């Protein structure tokens, strides 16, 4: 055991190599963020990372209008917020019986959900597009939100089932003795205890949908219905040469709803589960 603390030249070299690799990885992650922050205040921004010669907020002024920013953001909030809410509600209702009841189809259903979790969404977009076309749901925001929720459900069910598994069953048994139905026990006992976990699923689902470019690009066709994740594509083609400064400013504003949602939920939930002690007393 004493030899593990000896600082040899070989160990120092290995440590320097590991540190160098970690620094390179950190730079690879930080460089795009640094470019984003610097370029949004630079009217003549290019792809290189440099301090702006004349810092200004002209890029923000250029993109802060209804067609380019506010309407796509509002569409994205409706689309992703609706998708996240649908996902959390249905995943909770599906995870509760999977956690509490032993049935013949429980394991096959869980394996099916696990398989669906790893299914790439691009593999099913062609039949989904054909289905939407046949049902005349192309360019429908509610239908697109439901489809986005469907793609998030398998992973959400797995997560929420794990949270429900940690809730002591004795709490529900006490409510059943008092005459509460399983749905009442779920609503008044289980849901308040797993609310932090549900908020995590809500944020995760919202972020997934918020950054989803492919699904709304395929299923929505009217420009006035496109979310911000698709509108950002117009900076690369519709307006000719790429305006990197405006693109950076738009990207910063586009990221704000996710940051605000995280801050609101984390402050509201306190960031802690309170299962311990729930069965005491």
Compile the SSE list and pairings.
Layout: H1 9-39, H2 58-63, H3 66-100, H4 106-117, H5 125-134, H6 141-165, H7 169-177, H8 182-193, H9 195-210, H10 214-219, H11 228-231, H12 244-269
Describe this structure in words.
With 281 residues, the protein is mostly helical. The chain has helices at 9-39, 58-63, 66-100, 106-117, 125-134, 141-165, 169-177, 182-193, 195-210, 214-219, 228-231, 244-269. It is globular and about 70 Å long.
- Rg, rounded, reads 24 Å
The whole-number mean of residue pLDDT values reads: 83
State the helical fraction: 55-70%
Quickly give the structural class: mainly alpha
Q: Beta-strand percentage?
A: under 5%
Describe this structure in a few short sentences:
With 281 residues, the chain is mainly alpha-helical. The protein has helices spanning 9-39, 58-63, 66-100, 106-117, 125-134, 141-165, 169-177, 182-193, 195-210, 214-219, 228-231, 244-269.
Characteristics:
68% helix, mainly alpha, globular, 0% strand, 281 residues
